[in-house]
Amino acid sequence: MVKIPWEKLAENPKASEALVTMLVLRLRPGARAVDGKGGDEGRDLYEYVEGETLILYEAKSFSGRMGKSQRSQVVESLQSAARHQPDHWDLLVPIDPNPSEQRWFDSLRQEFQFVREWRGRSWLDTQFAAHPDLVRYALHESSDYILERIAELKMEREVMPKIPDYIDRAVTLHQRGQEISPHYSLQTELDANGNSLIHLIPKNPGSREGEIRLLGSPQFPAGAHGEAQRRQYQETMRFGGEMELTAENVAGISVSGPVELGLDALPLAGMRIISPREEISPSIHAQLAVQQESGLPQVSLPLEFTRREHGSAGGTLYGQSIGGFLKVRLRLEKGSGKCSFTFSVDPPPYSMPQTFVPALRLIGNMRPGRTVALAFAGDTPSRLYAPLGDHDVFDRWPPEEATWWASAFEDLAHLQNRTGYFFPVPDKFTKADVRDVRDVLALLSGETIALRGTVLSLVVTSSEALDQLTPPPGQMSRIRAQSQGLSFQIGGQEIELGAGVDIYTLDKVLNLSEARRELAENGQAAVRLRVSKQFPATRHLPDTQTSPE
User: Fold this and answer.
1) SS3 breakdown of the chain: % helix, strand, coil, rounded to 5?
2) CA 182, CA 546: separation in Å to the nearest integer?
3) What is the pTM of this model?
4) Residue range 315-329: mean pLDDT, rounded
């Protein structure tokens, strides 16, 4: 990583701070720099996010450590910044804070609640490494040159066209674009990376006049990756889909079309293939079933197909189960009636547990040797069949795992019905949470559950209490403890059960000598007792807390 000579730059604070300003202007397109000749009043570099949130950036040229003088300057900057009532304030300084400096910086929030981040030397070096032209400024250019670049960027951002001017210019360009060709209209947009995309839309769909052709075939490199690309290309062309081709793939392809478009002179740097597709409205309803080897249905699930794609040899239907847990892709071949299914799982966020169960029950029955049957709704329903092979087993939800989780979500739904406390499946719902759910259900049903753990810790305040806890040699002692606020944390949700009774059978005090000494010195002692393996600890609810089914 190329490092900035911060110590050398610190000799010219203006150059150092200007360089950091250039970096922020590069990273944050919405940021603005203020000319500080007349005093920046605590806002030399700022940004409004979403029109309302004000963020101030404070660049300092300090090096070495954040001493008393430097801290005072930071506080003075914060006092100036407070006049603008910012939402956030970030310090950018080429010093990585040590623990003491970090504690000082964090303490600033007590008076200035808008203090947010300390961006130090490591962060700055990492960002500059991704922008080598700015590194060259630091190594080779004068501070005046850097300030000139900031002034130019400031001017560019201030002379951006106003919205009415932009609209007029955009409308004019759009109208001219439609006059380019009698065969195509043009539509322009920006992609996620800021690249311009130009869509050519036929003015007379279905007409072969002025059609655009690709001359040549894609090329795929040797090896497993190239072979996978080739198969994807063939499947996309035959049944529909979407695919990206790189410059290497399209090296042997040229474009031919109407002369007025100038496509013959257009070099191909890549290609995206998007097959004809349509949204299905109203959607197509169907019933998906898994049949046993005997042909009898094992379990079924309603589906809804909402999108269709076309290819040269057939088409593809895209659908999902109610709630979107199970995604289904159905590929149909023209003429032969052959079909194949591809399944994927996409658990929807913020869903109740019972919505997961039907799809998981279906997945749990998807075993090699069985058959998938799809019946479309209608007066004369049509059916499609496809055998299940090893490739149809889900990586994330193999049948046994899916069946286990279906029961787990059923238990969670049952718990919610029993307690009257309803909540969606937590983002982090673990197998440990499932065990807790089943323990709570057992307690509510009047059962006794076993507690996990082999050591019980208590605090005693007298020798008599310690003696009562100490079992005689070869014997055991038993403790009955009743709590008034028994609760379980399940996936971040707290389930309160009220009073609970725990029974512990103990066979040894693990720290008896230390506990007696601590008791004599402090008047209390923490005692660690071993729970008997023969009689594990148990828990139950008092009879008054037991709810009938």
Assistant:
1) 35, 30, 35
2) 81
3) 0.57
4) 92
